[in-house]
Write a structure and sequence with these properties.
By secondary structure, this protein is of the alpha+beta class. It has helices spanning 3-36, 55-58, 106-113, 233-245, and strands at residues 39-45, 62-68, 87-88, 103-104, 123-130, 144-151, 169-171, 177-179, 187-202, 224-231, 247-252.
């Protein structure tokens, strides 16, 4: 084998060796980074735990694991001291990190699980609302609520105008016609009275007890509330339309709250009436 061939073979071997060293270095980079990262202790679910299980019972299905700090879930617990006396607000699945937000007082959970008989002819539907739009998240099955619908302006030019006298056109001083876009005003009004609440589901429970709060002050739900209501078919259409194209607010309504007053749609023109 001549020197030229030997040189080519040597170059190939050197390149291969260099590539192998580089691959090994890169593959070990993640291991080095992981080794340098702090490990923290968290509680992890070993066996499935049903919703409503007391902490004292649920802890038998948990164990402590060490995880990288970056892999620790928000609010994950190292121990159950802060949630003693509570129950699980949702089903826990194996492998889940145990979060303080997934525990709730037993009486609060019971309120959300009350069953309500739905009168014949009504439709049940569910809306997803933030706490401030659902009476601070305090609604419970059996409550009656007024449904308020709010809308941003809708355009009124769905049909292309052809008549020069159309309201969507404006006559300029020079005789030309300029097309303008008309819109409805921002509006709010009660669309449904005395809708029957049949179920309430809190997507996240309060992260911790309200012990540090002043007397009479509650901890608000952390995120959103699913409210299921039973309403007449026509009312269901109004609620769904609002959910799709506007915003819904619920107001707890007493049995004696009047319904016969004419419906007043609030706009900026009459909000200070």
């Amino acid at each position: 084998m001549n020197r030229r061939v030997l040189g080519v073979v040597a170059a190939i071997l050197l390149a291969a060796a260099g590539t192998w060293v580089l691959v090994q270095y890169v593959s070990k980079a993640d291991e080095r980074a992981e080794a340098d990262q702090e490990l923290v202790a968290v509680l992890v679910v070993d066996e499935a735990i049903a919703q409503g299980t007391p902490v004292a019972v649920a802890q038998a299905s948990m164990s402590t694991k060490l995880v990288r700090a970056d892999d620790r879930a928000p609010g994950a617990l190292e121990n159950l001291d802060s949630v003693r006396g509570l129950v699980t607000s949702i089903d826990f699945l194996p492998g889940d990190q145990v979060s303080a937000a997934r525990f709730i007082a037993a009486e609060v959970l019971l309120d959300t699980q009350l069953t309500v008989d739905v009168p014949e002819g009504l439709l049940e539907l569910t809306v997803l609302l933030t706490a401030e739009r659902s009476v601070g998240g305090t609604l419970k099955p059996g409550d009656k609520v007024a449904v308020l619908s709010s809308f941003d302006p809708f355009t009124l030019d769905a049909v292309e105008p052809t008549n020069p006298d159309d309201l969507n056109q404006f006559l300029q001083n020079d005789g030309t016609v300029e097309t303008i876009t008309l819109t409805t005003p921002n509006s709010t009004g009660i669309s449904v009275h005395k809708a029957l609440v049949t179920r309430v589901q809190v997507t996240e429970a309060p992260a911790e007890e309200a012990a540090a709060q002043p007397a009479g002050v509650d901890v608000a739900p952390a995120t959103q509330v699913l409210v299921t209501m039973a309403v007449a078919p026509g009312d269901a259409e109004q609620i769904i339309f609002t959910a799709e194209y506007g915003a819904i607010w619920l107001a707890r309504e007493t049995q004696t709250a009047p319904e016969e007053d004419p419906v007043l749609i609030i706009t900026r023109a009459n909000v200070y009436r």
